[in-house]
Design a protein that fits this description.
This protein is 75% helix and 0% strand. It is built from 7 helices and no strands. The protein has helices at 7-27, 34-59, 65-88, 94-116, 125-147, 157-161, 166-197. The longest helix is centred in the last third of the chain and has 32 residues, at 166-197. The radius of gyration is 18 Å and the shape is globular. The mean pLDDT is 83.
Length: 205
Amino acid sequence: MLKKMNLPNKLTMLRILLVPVFIVFIALPSEWVWNIWVALGVFIVAAITDFLDGQISRRKNIVTKFGKIMDPLADKLLVSSGFIMLAGLGIIPAWITAIIIFRDFFVNALRMFGTDNGKDLAAGISGKIKTIFQLIGLTLAILGIGLSQYTNVFGDFINSASSMSIGVLMVNIGMTVSIAVAVLATLWSLVDYFIRFKDDIDVEK
């Protein structure tokens, strides 16, 4: 099967395979330090594959049904695992993680209705913006762990800011802003997808 895949689909599969690797390393004791940097590297590589497969697909006009289904799934696996693990570490509030996962499950259901009616499943602008800020926010959050100076998003940021170096402060500001924008974009995407696929929902079949 792998030999028959085009390059974008191979990158999508690589992203999926990197998710459990990321989970394993970030789940190791943070006191070890080195595992956080490995987790960060794996996450960045996975995020880069998301950018590359989209660029290659558009440049070479390679669009497959496999890619339309598996590319969003790969994104959801990567993003959801990141938010779940960081929520478990107390860096990102659980309610933010709940919003992210709820949106993904709900949109996945809507996309299934759309598939039955032959609708275009390509991600809209809202979904792309959501994914970009989610990946940026998660990357900065993991970087914050590595720097051992992170703060809880929307938590006691002001009180702890005075004790941070300028570099760590910028990382925390970037993380907080990115996560905030990601939440707003996630809600926007949820509404956007509902509008796109609401007419495909058939409760009688």
